[in-house]
Write a structure and sequence with these properties.
The complex is a heterodimer. By secondary structure, chain A is an alpha/beta fold. Chain A is about 20% helix and about 40% strand. In chain B, strands 5, 6, 8, 10, 11, 13, 15, 16, 18, 20 and 22 form an 11-stranded mixed β-sheet that branches. In chain B, β3 and β4 form a beta hairpin. Classes of the chains: A alpha/beta, B alpha/beta.
Chain lengths: ~425, ~475
């Protein structure tokens, strides 16, 4: 890449090579390699299919610098109140661990900041940390993430261990033009089970940059319920790159709830590796104001008799814009696959724009695959019905939107979690 | 080159179309494309100056435009533009009566199955032999109604006042690399004008045929239905089999003025070495209707996404698409629906069958821009996979801005159920015949939308392609 097209404002993020910090030499070497990869890869362009319809200006984040320490750690920890009785909790602010509460965990379960995991459990990190190449367009951003990573959350649940209560991880960003690199790595061994709630939030209204990676590995027969609640400030640019690996008979249920951000790019890549594996991919996106939610998904079936089921609901108001680009790929030999993909756009304003690209690539035999995309408006009859019963039009519309999202939350096989997320959603919708 | 990018020459039994005769080519521009080739074509055809300028502009854009390889199949890289003949003609004047048609050409048509009695039914036959229309016969009745049905060359010379107004307006020459190429070297194709209120009772029909090695066909068709007019146009293709790839890159423009209706029917059965890269689009004005009925059975790679721009309120667009991808074939087809006015409606129904190592791709675009109300689109894509090595893809792109519109897309992929086949076999039907029946059943509701003789031909072609697909 020519030095001329490199905007000067990138200098602070880009010009400085990764800092060794407390990382062991092998980890730092990988960071330097990632740094070189980042520098060598081009920025997304018009002709890149994974960036079709995307806001390329937003996808070339300019003028950010690595985040400084947070002003008041105690205050952020106090604000990190989500699930009442967690079995473990980590709070990060500007890529620094602010709080760790892991008292309720069964023995053998590791919930550690990444630097401790790298130092004490190098084997696990080597075999699970960023082992999949991002395939949905954000390779450059993931390389920058790896190069600039300072900490992150690592959860490891050993064979057969069931973690009853959810584990909550908070990632805060603070400061105008501050860049953070939140990381969550979840590894469930054979037969293990856990529920993880990832919370992403801004301390104020500043314009920040978040490049997050969250990788989920679900072992044989293991069960993971993962929820990401994203509440970045309305001026934040965010990239969330996710890879999920599911082994034989394992089940991953992952829900992304996007409530904030100016430009949010989410990439969810599910690898159905084992026979009978299952991946449920859900997303709830009340897009309003100037928000742009750009989601790319991949349901990649490598093994026979696996199931993937995707349901994304977008409600678009104001000047918001959404992009959904999903692909179901049934690889050769992945016979008897069940794969479903559905995106629904509820248009609530004349300025909003929804783009849908639901894709299928089928190379196997005896598969059941369907996909669908719809765009519509509020049902007049439903509105009328409620108004006839004395519910004001505005409130009636809110209730319909809430119901529209409720049908996604219902897919979570966890009543308490449904209620918890429903409450967060109600607050956002002002119900 | 990786194995993925090469398509083996596969022997598909083509009892129809697999033959060729020596023809003395009166005009031959040689192989390769330079500005001199374009001057040569213009000189030979006696193009007016504006056409020559249009060709040169197209050539410039062709050189400028990149190949669409960032999303399309890499097989396109195997097209060697220098090895293609861009112009070849049997004669300069379209033949007016059957008697004037050379005997050997007649024989080819006999083998193709254009029976003389068919002319009684068909309103007119514009049969294309290589680049120039070698035969044209318009029934007096159609002419009496004021309908113009001529070759594109004749159209631009004799009816410039109508031709020029719309030519290259629906599909600008710079639309894509292949429309630019067509603009540079086009010859042949039809020009049809239907005057206001005239409803052409019988379908207008043209057969196209390639009959020279490495010879690409670049037809240019323009159909204008004036206010309240109605017309159906049918295009069918068969081609002999050759060892080296040939390129077919047509441009078809349709204009339906207020309240007009145009139906355009294609049955494509090029031989399995043909790259068939076609741009087809129509503009529908107020309350007008454009319907593309598109069936792709032959070729090595077909890339074709018929489109309708619904320019004024009440316009309607429809694409009915059937694709059959046999061994080594890639049918990359679909539709484009651009809603540009309130209360416009579009409908896409696509069914594809992949057998052997065939790959069927649906690629679609539906666009509803800002501040439009009452726009509706419905898209249904169904794919049928026959063998374990078959492949199918679906890549729709849907953009909706604002509320007050309803857009839905649904797709499914399925197989012929073993139970169905077993049931038929129990009743004494062979496995192969049972498969054929099941496939015909899958596309039956769409085939019925084709004109009668086409639907018969289609069923025959499906049976032919299904032969030997079992086991």
């Amino acid at each position: 890449m020519s030095a001329l097209c490199e905007p000067e404002v990138h200098a602070s993020l880009i010009a400085d090579a990764p800092v060794r910090g407390n990382w062991p030499a092998w980890f730092h070497e990988d960071q330097v390699k990632a740094w070189e990869l980042f520098a060598s890869l081009p920025w997304p362009s018009r002709t890149d299919e994974p960036w079709r319809f995307a806001n390329l200006k937003a996808a070339r984040p300019e003028g950010f610098r690595p985040a400084d320490s947070v002003r008041d750690a105690a205050e952020l920890v106090a604000r990190s109140t989500g699930w009442e009785h967690v079995s473990g909790k980590l709070v990060f602010g500007n890529d620094t661990l602010l709080h760790s509460g892991v008292s309720g965990l069964p023995s053998g379960v590791l919930l550690l900041p990444l630097e401790e995991a790298v130092a004490g459990h190098a084997g696990l990190i080597r075999s699970h940390f960023m082992t999949s190449e991002p395939r949905l367009g954000s390779r450059k951003f993931a390389a920058l993430h790896r190069a600039k990573l300072r900490t992150g959350a690592f959860l490891h649940v050993p064979k057969g261990v069931v973690v009853e209560k959810p584990i909550e991880i908070w990632h805060w960003v603070e400061g105008e033009k501050a860049a953070v690199f939140p990381h969550t790595l979840v590894v469930l061994e054979e037969g293990a089970s856990a529920t993880v709630i990832d919370r992403f939030a801004s301390s104020g209204t500043e314009a920040s940059l978040a490049i997050a990676v969250n990788d989920l590995t679900v072992g044989k027969g293991a069960r993971l319920t993962y929820t990401a609640v994203q509440e970045w400030s309305d001026s934040t640019t965010a990239f969330h790159v996710n890879t999920t690996e599911v082994a034989e008979e394992g089940t991953s249920t992952a829900l992304q709830m996007n409530l904030g951000g100016r430009y949010v790019r989410g990439e969810s890549d599910s690898h159905l590796r084992g026979e009978g594996s299952r991946s449920v991919m859900l997303s709830v996106n009340p897009a309003d104001k100037q928000r742009e939610i750009d989601q790319r998904t991949f349901q990649d079936h490598f093994s026979p008799r696996a199931t993937s089921d995707l349901l994304y609901h977008n409600a678009l108001s104001d000047n918001s814009r959404t992009i959904f680009s999903g692909l179901i790929k049934v690889e050769e030999g992945a016979h008897e696959t069940d794969a479903y993909q559905k995106v629904r756009n509820l248009m609530l304003s004349d300025e909003a724009e929804a783009n849908s690209m639901p894709g299928l690539e089928i190379l196997a035999d005896n598969v059941r695959c369907t996909h669908g995309a719809t765009s519509g408006e509020l049902n007049e009859e439903e509105l009328f019905y409620m108004q006839a019963r004395g519910i004001p039009a505005k409130q009636a519309a809110q209730l319909i939107v809430r119901g529209f999202f409720g049908s996604v939350l219902e897919r979570l096989d966890h009543a308490e979690l449904q209620a918890h997320l429903g409450a967060i959603l109600d607050k956002k919708l002002g119900i | 080159m990786s194995s993925e990018t090469t398509t083996p020459d596969l022997e598909i039994d083509r009892s129809v179309g697999d033959f060729s005769y020596d023809v003395a080519y009166a005009y031959d521009a040689g192989v390769g494309l330079t500005e001199a080739t374009i001057d040569y074509i213009s000189d030979v055809k006696g193009d007016p100056d504006w056409v020559r300028a249009f060709r040169k502009e197209g050539y410039r854009k062709f050189l400028e435009k990149p190949m669409p390889t960032h999303w399309a199949t890499k097989d396109l890289e195997n097209i060697v533009f220098e090895n293609i003949r861009y112009y070849l003609a049997q004669g300069q004047q379209a033949k007016r009566s059957w008697d004037e048609v050379p005997d050997e050409v007649k024989e080819t048509f006999e083998r193709l199955g254009i029976p003389e009695q068919e002319r009684k039914f068909l309103a007119g036959v514009e049969a294309q032999f290589d680049s120039e229309a070698a035969y044209s016969n318009i029934k007096a009745a159609v002419g009496e109604q004021g309908v113009i049905f001529v070759g594109s060359t004749e159209g631009l010379k004799e009816h410039p006042e109508i031709f020029k107004k719309w030519f290259g307006k629906v599909i600008p020459s710079g639309d894509n690399k292949f429309s630019a190429l067509n603009s540079a070297v086009f010859s042949g194709g039809s020009f049809i004008y239907v005057p206001p209120g005239v409803k052409v009772k019988h379908p207008l029909q043209a057969y196209f045929r390639i009959n020279a090695q490495n010879f690409g066909q670049f037809e240019r068709t323009l159909i204008i239905a004036d206010e309240g007019a109605e017309v159906m146009y049918m295009e069918g293709c068969t081609a002999p089999k050759f060892e080296t790839a040939t390129l077919h890159s047509a441009v078809v423009e349709l204009v339906a003025l207020k309240g007009a209706k145009i139906q355009y029917v294609t049955v494509q059965n090029w031989s399995s070495n043909v790259f068939n890269l076609v741009t087809k689009r129509g503009i529908a004005h107020q309350d007008a209707e454009i319907k593309w009925i598109d069936c792709n059975i032959g070729s090595r790679v077909t890339m074709k996404y018929p489109g309708v721009v619904m320019k004024e309120p009440g316009a309607r667009g429809e694409v009915v698409s059937i694709a059959l991808a046999g061994d080594g074939q890639h049918q990359d087809t679909g539709a484009k629906m651009i809603h540009a006015a309130d209360n416009t409606t579009s409908n896409i129904v696509s069914k594809s069958i992949s057998l052997g190592t065939g790959r069927a791709t649906y690629r679609g675009m539906v666009h509803v821009p800002k501040h439009l109300k009452g726009c509706k689109n419905n898209t249904e894509c169904d794919a049928l996979l026959i063998n374990t090595s078959s492949r199918t893809d679906t890549y729709p792109a849907i953009t909706v801005r604002g509320q007050g519109n309803a857009v839905q897309h649904e797709a499914s992929v399925s197989q012929i159920s073993a139970e169905q086949i077993f049931y038929m076999q129990q009743r004494g039907i062979s496995e192969g015949a049972a498969m054929s029946l099941a496939v015909n059943g899958f596309v039956n509701d769409l085939v019925q939308q084709f004109p009668m003789e086409y639907s018969v031909e289609l069923k025959r072609l499906i049976d032919l392609e299904m032969e030997g697909s079992v086991g």
